[in-house]
């Protein structure tokens, strides 16, 4: 099964992707990792991408989709993949849908982790204040201004793909502000209801 996790920075997509990997044998894909691997391997796609990047341009959607197409055919993607951070635009979403359909492995669902941005900012400020009070180093980009900029970028660029998947009847939403275990259980319920098969037999005592 192939899934997309949607949500702004701090929504917990990475945490839930790791749980899905462990539970269902899926593979979380990063377009950045794929790009670096293709360039390092010196593949034709890697050479094309490197030429574009060296010239200061942005790698085209066609190249990115071709890289994904190659990547999902590898053995560790046999049970399906999780897209986190891609697609970022409606054009990318449409191209990804076409490619996956051609391969006979369409998306099962696009799962949106809905969050309260004001609470995300408050949590960040509290975490940074706690770290500073303990004398721990704080990353230079771990601040309210940077988070707000990333949230704004998500609203402007990525949020428009939400109605795209809604129109395809693929969008499912969960409360991303709930605890990690509750969010995990909600995603499990979506997958079973979307035809992913029986729920995994892993211990579920942590789910209230």
Structural class: alpha/beta
The N- and C-terminal alpha carbons lie at a distance of 26 Å
> Per DSSP, what share of the residues sits in E-state strands of 2 or more residues?
5-15%
Please tell me the overall pLDDT.
Answer: 88
Could you give a short account of the major beta sheet? 5 strands, parallel
Number of strands: 5
Bin the helical content. 40-55%
Shape: globular
If strands are numbered along the chain, what order do they take across the biggest sheet?
Answer: 2-3-1-4-5
What features would you describe in this structure?
This protein has a five-stranded parallel beta sheet with strand order 2-3-1-4-5. Helix content is 54%, strand content 12%. It has 208 residues and is of the alpha/beta class. The protein has helices at 13-24, 31-41, 44-54, 61-71, 90-103, 117-133, 144-158, 161-167, 180-193; strands at 2-6, 27-29, 81-84, 107-114, 171-175. The radius of gyration is 18 Å and the shape is globular.
Task: Describe the structure in brief.
By secondary structure, the protein is α/β, with parallel strands linked by helices.
